[in-house]
Design a protein that fits this description.
By secondary structure, this protein is of the alpha/beta class. It has one domain (14-148): Ribonuclease H-like superfamily/Ribonuclease H (Nucleotidyltransferase, domain 5, 2-Layer Sandwich), CATH 3.30.420. It has four helices and six strands, in the order ββββαβααβα. The protein has a six-stranded mixed β-sheet with strand order 1-6-5-2-3-4, with helices on both faces. The protein is globular and about 40 Å long. This is RNase H type-1 domain-containing protein. Pfam families: RNase_H (PF00075).
């Protein structure tokens, strides 16, 4: 079995993106993801846009003992699994999240959480980019994912 050290793997980076510019590109898959914990209930929401149109949305309930971090990360994992299912693996996939903590965990060399390792494994076969989207500023995709979460 050939295993490379983590520092030799593909580096995951992200950018701050307040706009919906990429939503208008017909060929891009654009996922907005969010996680929340309200009144002891934890869930996540995922919205998929292509060519500026919403084509799929998911609302997923998690175990009540799940943290917001885990909900945010699970939303990203589900979005990527959906991207694998829909995509020919060459089209650009853009993941928009308001979770800076998940983005920082994805960026790190050492992975504390199995869920982050799972995401990194899925990413190995995708043409992807991550974008941090500021929460609660009226960005439609982000607000829609927040509602579903």
């Amino acid at each position: 079995m050939n295993i490379s050290p983590p520092w030799q793997g593909r580096r995951i980076s992200w950018n701050i993106d307040y706009s919906n510019v990429k939503m208008m590109n017909e060929s891009n898959y654009n996922f907005y993801t969010d996680g929340s914990r309200i009144e002891g209930k934890t869930g996540c929401g995922i919205v998929l846009f292509r060519g500026g149109e919403e084509i799929k949305s998911l609302s997923i309930r998690l175990n009540d003992d799940s943290s917001v971090f885990m909900a945010e990360a699970y939303a990203i994992k589900c979005a990527l699994m959906e991207a694998q299912r829909l995509n020919n693996l060459t089209l650009p996939i853009h993941i928009f999240t308001d979770s800076m903590s998940v983005l920082k965990s994805l960026e790190a060399v050492n992975d504390r959480f199995q869920l982050i390792r799972d995401i990194k494994t899925i990413l190995q076969n995708l043409n992807f980019s991550f974008h941090w989207a500021k929460a609660h500023v009226g960005t439609y995709g982000n607000e829609r994912a927040d509602f579903l979460a």
